[in-house]
Design a protein that fits this description.
Blueprint (H helix, E strand, L loop, with lengths): L3 H10 L9 H14 L10 H10 L3 H10 L3 H15 L5 H7 L3 H9 L1 H6 L3
């Protein structure tokens, strides 16, 4: 039979989880937390509080930047192919590779530069 103390401690530990980050990221967060806690009065601020505050301040622009940074060259090529299929004609991936080797491809890129830049290409 569990005692009250055992069930309380189990419930507390259920609310926490580990998070895997790079060592440099951890060190950066620890430095910031140390600066936050350099004060004469008040309780210590926890890492959880620091992270929660930081996450609340993530903007739509930050999310878009991260999404653009995550694009691989293959992703960029597929995005350009989708635009090409929508604006010129539908082609397979293999046919599109042939399109990229023709002079008209660079003209297509110039004409659609604004749209491509918005997509991070």
């Amino acid at each position: 039979m569990k005692t009250i103390n055992e069930s309380k401690s189990k419930n507390k530990s259920d609310n926490y989880s580990s998070l895997r980050v790079k060592l440099a990221t951890k060190n950066n967060a620890m430095k910031i937390l140390e600066n936050v806690n350099k004060k004469d009065f008040g309780m210590k601020v926890s890492m959880d509080e620091l992270i929660n505050l930081s996450l609340k301040n993530v903007t739509k622009d930050d999310i878009e930047l991260l999404q653009k940074k995550s694009l691989r060259n293959k992703d960029r090529q597929n995005i350009v192919r989708q635009i090409y299929c929508r604006k010129v004609k539908k082609v397979t991936e293999d046919e599109f590779i042939g399109v990229t080797m023709k002079d008209g491809y660079f003209q297509f890129l110039k004409e659609n530069m604004i749209e491509l830049e918005k997509l991070g290409i």
